[in-house]
Specification:
With 232 residues, this protein is α/β, with parallel strands linked by helices. It has seven helices and nine strands; from the N terminus they run βαβββαβαβαβαββαα. It has two domains: 3-154, 3-Layer(aba) Sandwich (Alpha/beta knot); 169-228, Trp Operon Repressor, Chain A (Orthogonal Bundle). β5, α3 (97-104) and β6 form a beta-alpha-beta unit.
């Protein structure tokens, strides 16, 4: 059984977008995952197909209506659908590689893309939507965030990456940032590849890489470093 993604959006034409190219696109063609895209507006019943309304209590912007979004969710996924229901949201739990790995090990995900100022809180509560953020900045809609999440998940699915192992060694897999990479030519603009990497001594290479990964993490991401050291 392959990973089944269902996306709810007001902009279905944005999909598959980048998910249709390269690694994710080839995996989609090969049936290693599936993507169903539902237009939230298609379930709006009034003459103007209204999906938003002004915020209760006042303020700027518009809010995605609970009744419309709930109908769209119910049409896209039956109540007993075992997949997690995610709402892309800057208020959400920050997405990290551990969550990505957990999602990749599961049956798929229902991913709701917000727009406007956000969605009516009652549909978040009533349909058990779990808010997920891709970082501390605000996008204009959840579509790019959904693509980021799905791209991160899809590359971990069995058979998607050339070597099964290539997901093992990279940034975050062991809580560290990845060591620097080099490839030929041996000297480029006067800069040589570090001697150790051309030494053929695999033990030394492994040690050098883990030292580099540790130094980078300590410098750039003291937050990750504290976690790795068990200080958090
Ligand atoms: N008023 C909201 C921002 C709305 S942005 C607030 O201040 O929290 C519109 C939509 O873009 C959101 O509903 C969400 O689906 C999406 N979005 C914006 N930033 C995001 C982020 N960092 N991560 C995930 N989704 C995001």
């Amino acid at each position: 059984m392959s990973f089944a993604a269902t996306v709810l959006t007001l902009y279905p034409e944005m999909f598959p977008g980048p998910l249709g190219a390269s690694l994710a696109g080839r995996a989609l063609e090969r049936g290693l995952w599936s993507l169903a895209v539902h237009d939230i507006r298609a379930v709006a019943t009034d003459r103007h197909r209204t999906v938003d309304d002004t915020p209760s209590g006042g303020g700027l912007g518009m809010v995605l209506k609970a009744d419309v979004l709930a109908s769209a969710i119910d049409a896209a996924a039956p109540a007993d659908d075992p997949r997690p229901r995610l709402l892309m949201s800057p208020r959400g739990v920050p997405l990290d590689q551990a969550r990505v790995r957990a999602l990749a090990a599961g049956p798929g995900a229902l991913v709701v893309c917000g727009r406007f100022e956000g969605v009516d809180q009652r549909v978040i509560d009533g349909r058990g939507l779990e808010e997920v953020s891709i970082g501390d900045y605000v996008l204009s809609g959840g579509e790019l965030a959904a693509m980021v999440l799905l791209d991160a998940v899809v590359r971990l699915l069995p058979g998607v990456m050339g070597k099964e192992a290539s997901g093992e060694d990279e940034s975050f897999s062991h809580g560290l940032l990845e060591y620097p990479h080099y490839t030929r030519p041996a000297v480029w603009e006067g800069r040589a590849i570090p001697d150790v990497l051309v030494s053929g001594d695999h033990g030394r290479i492994a040690r050098w890489r883990s030292e580099q990964a540790e130094a980078l993490t300590r410098h750039r991401r003291p937050d990750l470093w504290r976690k790795v050291r068990g200080e958090d």
